[in-house]
Amino acid sequence: MGIGFTASKKVGGAVIRNRAKRRLREAARQLLPKHGLAGVDYVLVARQSTPDADWAALLDDLKSALLRLAADLQAGATSERRPRAQSHPERETPTESD
């Protein structure tokens, strides 16, 4: 099981981003051994509310997400993901007719 943490600059300055990642790291340390799945890699993304969120609410949100993911994986839902929309579709170039 691999785990990564990320926080964009939208979360705040470096000190705030590090606090958000520390909180996510501790929440993962507490919850992944019981609710994580072997062979699954996790990426936790900090949001603007992460640094100041109520600790119990943060744990509850992560636990809910882990349980929902486990249920989806058991149902096979993640293999049927919707394709992402292209932000820059390929442009057709006009061709010369001979």
Automatic annotation (TrEMBL):
The keyword Lipid biosynthesis does not apply. Keywords: Endonuclease, Hydrolase, Nuclease, RNA-binding, tRNA processing. The gene is rnpA. It comes from Terricaulis silvestris. This is Ribonuclease P protein component. Its EC number is 3.1.26.5. One of its GO terms (cellular component) is ribonuclease P complex. Residues 75-98 are annotated as: Disordered. GO terms for molecular function: 3'-tRNA processing endoribonuclease activity; ribonuclease P activity; tRNA binding. The lineage of its organism: Bacteria, Pseudomonadati, Pseudomonadota, Alphaproteobacteria, Caulobacterales. InterPro entries: Ribosomal_Su5_D2-typ_SF, Ribsml_uS5_D2-typ_fold_subgr, RNase_P, RNase_P_CS. Residues 79-98 have a biased composition (Basic and acidic residues).
